Amino acid sequence: MDTAILPTTKRSENPAQVRFWHRIGTWLLTWEIYPLLLFASFLRFYRLAWTEFDTDQAVLAGLPRMALAHGLIPGTGTIASIGMANPPGYVYLFLPIAALSASPLVDAIVIALSNILAVLLTYLFVRRYYGRLAGAVAGFLFAVAYESVHYSRFIWQPNLFPFFTLLFIAALFWGVVERRSGWFAVALPLLGLLLHLHLLALYLIVPLLLALVLAYKTVRWRDVILGVVLSLGSFLTYFIWEIGVHFADISILLDAWHQPAHIDGQALSDYLELVGVPASQLAGPQTTLAWLTPLLRWERWGLIGLLLAGFLLAFLGLGWRQVRVMNASRFPEPASPVPAKFSFSPWQRLRDEWSALAASPQRAGLLLLLTWQIVPVLLMTRHSVDLQFHYMLFLLPGPFILIGLLFSQVRAWGDQLAPLAGRFVRLAIPALAVLLVVGQLFSTGAWVLDSMGGRDAHSVKFNTLSDLQAALNQADSLARMHHLRHVYIDTDMYTNLAFTYLAAQMQTPHTVFSGSHCLLLPSPAQGPALMLLGPADTLDEALLTHFTSAVLVDEPPRLGGTPFHLYIVQPLLTVPGSASFADTLSADKAPLTDFTWSDPAQQDTQPVHLLTTLWTNFRAWSAADDTSYTYQFIAHAIGSETGSGGSAVNCGFTNLAPGEKFLVPFAFPLGSVAQPAALAVSGSSSVSQPYVQSYGPFHLLSVRQQVSPLLAFRSTSGGNSLVVPD
User: Fold this and answer.
1) Which pTM does this prediction carry?
2) Are 414 and 469 found together in one domain?
3) What does the alpha-carbon distance between residue 470 and residue 532 come to, in Å, rounded to a whole number?
């Protein structure tokens, strides 16, 4: 035989590299990986253009793009619920995305992709250490769980927790279970990144310290130095920012930490809701979920029971030899050492037990998993601030891993039974897993279909990216069709930043305004204009239709809620009065008009008594990125039979031209003002701009705004107030 044709192995081939690619090929040929990715992708990508887009999403989409547009270095992230500015890690992560596209949909796609990768990594991680069945159960349950799907369908920094948390836990297993070096240089920077997403990830320092104790022999000095340098380096700009503000955010954090604390079961309740559709999501009769209510309840309690059984199994696995959940072919248990002599010292016996635990891949891995899942929940049981559900996201996909271990172990115990009983267990365990996954898939899929189909009733607080963009595109199109020069966008606290960000893509000149129901109107020189109002602007719409000849031309829809309204507004032809604030505003010659209004959405509220005034603007305020201007008015009724307190109105806007008008309504308690002869009005202006710290050529960007001191209006006749009408 000619030996020249026989295959030969190159000496340059690395056996570890060959095993790695062989393992990848084996995984790719595994059939369950494809439905796993299909379920995860469908639930996270279906109609993702209808992702929620409110204030937080607009801020997170805008910060990286502002940093790139103006050459700024991110100094902070968003504002936390306690009022402190978060570190800027999220902004740095999305700088490359901002360089490629200005569409927030791309950000939402990246969030969804990271969570799909988290599902895949869950399967691969659990399969590597605990076997194929455990990996499949953990991966599928994580892929279709309601909370994991819900928090992967919109832009928010905590939504990245599952992906990076799993990488962090995998790094710990690399050192504790596999006894490889280099893990600490990976784990510590990952913990730093998780702290950028939310400071509550500080609780993960407990499993990190445990891993250090269990695998201290694998930690090299260069790993420590590299890990510390990378971790502290990620906070460098945040530290510089805090020095500039005299550690104001750290003070806020410490103040919240020292608030009176209390102990309750909210943390445990929130943790248990990770595994099933919570009771709060059971929708009304108009939704598909309503038909699945019995299934949801049984499934939720069944999953909670399995999770508790998974915890019990993990505890038993720390000492009971009948529990063998670790992949024994890859991570065999070491032989129990025979002590040279028996020691009566409890410390020596404790040390021997700890050494045996640290040397056991299974026991060390289970202890790490239990520490990750239990310690943060116990620590959060005592809290001084209100707990939010998203605080639990860094514990995913831990609950599903424990359930996967339970299924795998019960299946292994079934193999030890008599043939008939063993066969029953081998068939029942996969069947139960399929039943749970299908049940979760139906319930979570029903929620996705209900939510994206508009069958869930949404309040004015909820707006989708697609609806906001469609409303602005329709306004742009109608303005061009009717040859209108300007579009006014009336916003509320839920849509102001979202509309401000998205309106930058409009072709028609526009002004975004907000405030205490202060209505901005076109000047006679501009001619008719288009005005977009949201469903929360019921008072503004009432003022518009009552005082102007506005015509409703379109109603762009909102998913599951009241539509937007588009009006063509004619200018008000009035005569400026002699009473004016120098170079700023003039009160038009128009009598005070009584207007009584009650909110149609709030049937039990008292009517509001309004006295309306009309003002003509003199100043030009140019548009600038993330810059807003505010006129503040304060009025006191004079010449009335009954006294009354003052009434304040704030008018915020992104830009303003001379000649544009303000319709300013002052609210007084009903019956407190009886046919007033006039109002004494004073006012001031201010400018809000991004807070930027400058250090030579370097400029740090913050989410915080820097508001200029109030500049009081000066009347032409002297003093700070005007009598309207004069």
Assistant:
1) 0.91
2) no
3) 12
Q: Is residue 457 part of a domain?
A: no
pLDDT for the residue 337? 59
Q: In which element (H, E) is residue 365 found?
A: helix 361-381
Contact between 198 and 86 under an 8 Å Cβ cutoff? The reply is yes
φ/ψ of residue 570, rounded to 5: -90, 145
Which residues contact residue 309 at a Cβ distance below 8 angstroms, ignoring those fewer than 6 apart?
A: 406
The number of distinct structural domains making up the chain is: 3
Cα separation, 255 vs 235, whole angstroms:
21
- Tokens read off for 616: 């003509």
The string of pLDDT tens digits covering residues 190-217 is 999 999 999 999 999 999 999 999 999 9
How far separated are the first and last CA of the chain, in Å rounded? Answer: 115
Query: Where do runs of H (alpha helix) occur along 101-200?
Result: 104-130, 132-144, 146-150, 161-176, 183-197
Statement to judge: residues 607 and 578 lie in one domain: yes
Contacts of 12 (CB under 8 A, 6+ apart): none
Q: What is the residue type of 193?
A: L
Query: Residue 196 and residue 725: Cα distance in Å, rounded?
Result: 55
Element (H, E) at 415: helix 398-415
The CATH number given to whatever domain includes residue 511 is 3.40.190
CA–CA separation, 443 vs 302, rounded Å? 14
pLDDT mean over 571-596: 78
Candidates 467, 550, 475, 562; CA nearest to 511 is: 475
Q: Tell me the Ramachandran region of residue 583: left when phi exceeds 0, alpha when psi lies from -120 to 50, beta otherwise.
A: left
* Whether 505 and 387 share a structural domain: no
At 541-557, the pLDDT tens digits run: 888 988 888 999 999 99
Cβ–Cβ < 8 Å for 40, 452: no
pLDDT at 433: 93
Q: Name the residue among 674, 608, 607, 678 with its Cα closest to residue 637.
A: 678
Asked if residue 4 belongs to a domain, the reply is no
CA distances from 3 to 7, 9, 13, 627 (A): 9, 14, 21, 78
Pull the structure tokens for residue 497: 């930043």
In this predicted structure, the answer to whether residue 435 has a pLDDT above a threshold of 80 is yes
pLDDT value of residue 675? 59
Q: Are residues 565 and 578 in the same domain?
A: no
Identify whether the C-beta of residue 612 lies closer than 8 Å to the C-beta of residue 673: no
| Structure letter (DSSP) for residue 519 | E
- Tokens representing 375 are 């310690």
Q: Which structural domain range is residue 529 located in?
A: 462-572
pLDDT at position 5, please?
Answer: 42
The helix (H) or strand (E) run that includes residue 312 is: helix 293-316
Q: Has residue 642 got a pLDDT over 50?
A: no
**pLDDT score at 672:** 56
User: In 3-state terms, what secondary structure has residue 667?
Assistant: strand
Token code pair at residue 541? 């719409």
| Top-confidence residue, 116 or 82 | 116
CA-CA distance, 473 to 469, in Å (whole number)? 6
Question: In angstroms, rounded to a whole number, what is the distance separating the alpha carbons of residues 167 and 191?
Answer: 10
> Of 117-131, 379-393, 598-612, which one has max mean pLDDT?
117-131
The answer as to whether 7 is a domain residue is no
Which residues fall within 8 angstroms of residue 718, CB to CB, at 6 or more apart?
Answer: none
663 lies in the same domain as 719: yes
- Which of 452, 470, 488 is at the close of a domain? 452
Q: Are 429 and 509 in the same domain?
A: no
Give the span between the Cα atoms of 572 and 672, in whole angstroms.
29
Distance CA 379, CA 370 (A): 14
- The answer to whether residue 325 sits within a structural domain is yes
**Could you tell me which residues are beta bridge partners of residue 551?**
568
Percent of the chain with pLDDT over 90: 54
Give the pLDDT of residue 291: 67
Q: Cα(391)–Cα(401) distance, rounded to whole angstroms?
A: 19
Reply yes or no: is the peptide bond before residue 397 cis, omega within 30 of 0: yes
Are 588 and 565 part of one and the same domain? no
Structure tokens belonging to residue 388:
């939010």
For position 17, what pLDDT does the model report? 64
